[in-house]
Amino acid sequence: MVSAEEIETKLKENLLPGALVHVEDISGGCGNSYELLVVSDEFDKKSPLMRHRKIHGILKEEVPLIHALTLNVYTVAQYENIKIKEKAESETKANREPEGENAETAANQDKADKEDRADKEDPDALSQ
C-alpha cells in the first residue's frame, strides 16, 4: 500500500521547488485510489500527455501498487485562471440563490407574485 504522504513527498522532491502538490486518497482510506493536483511552471509548454508521463515517471514504483490515479496537472497560470473562474461562478451562484431565511423569504415573495399575477389575469377566479 502507498500512502498519500509518500506520493506527495516523492513528487515534491522531484519537481521544481515551489510546486503545489495535493494528494487525496479517494478510496476511503485503503490506499488504492488517489486524486492528485500538481501545479508547477515545470509543465509550461508541455502537452497534457507529457505532463502525465512526467508524473508517472516520478511515481514509477508506486503506480503498480495503485488501482486508480486521477491527475490534475497545471501550470501556475492555468491554475490561477481556474481559481478565478471558480470564484466568479461561486459568487454568481451566491447572488442567485439566497440562503437560510432569505431563501424562505424569496420563495414566499415568488409565490405572492405569482398569485398577484393570476389575480390580475383572471379577477373572477377569486369569487368562484
Q: How would you characterize this protein structure?
A:
With 128 residues, the protein is α+β, with helices and mostly antiparallel strands. Helices cover 51% and strands 16% of the residues. The protein has 4 helices and 3 strands, in the order αββαβαα. The protein has helices spanning 4-14, 48-58, 76-96, 100-121; strands at 20-25, 33-39, 68-74. The chain has a 3-stranded mixed β-sheet. The longest helix is centred in the last third of the chain and has 22 residues, at 100-121. The termini are far apart. The model has no long low-confidence stretch (mean pLDDT 85).
Topology:
Layout: H1 4-14, E1 20-25, E2 33-39, H2 48-58, E3 68-74, H3 76-96, H4 100-121
Parallel strand pairs: 2-3
Antiparallel strand pairs: 1-2
Sheet with most strands: 3 strands, mixed
Task: Give the % helix.
Answer: 40-55%
- SS field, number of helical segments: 4
Strand order of the largest sheet: 1-2-3
Principal-axis shape: elongated
Task: Provide the succession of SSEs.
Answer: HEEHEHH
For the structure shown, list the relevant keywords.
3-stranded mixed beta sheet; 128 residues; 51% helix
Brief sketch in words of this structure:
With 128 residues, the protein is of the alpha+beta class. Helices cover 51% and strands 16% of the residues. The chain contains 4 helices and 3 strands.
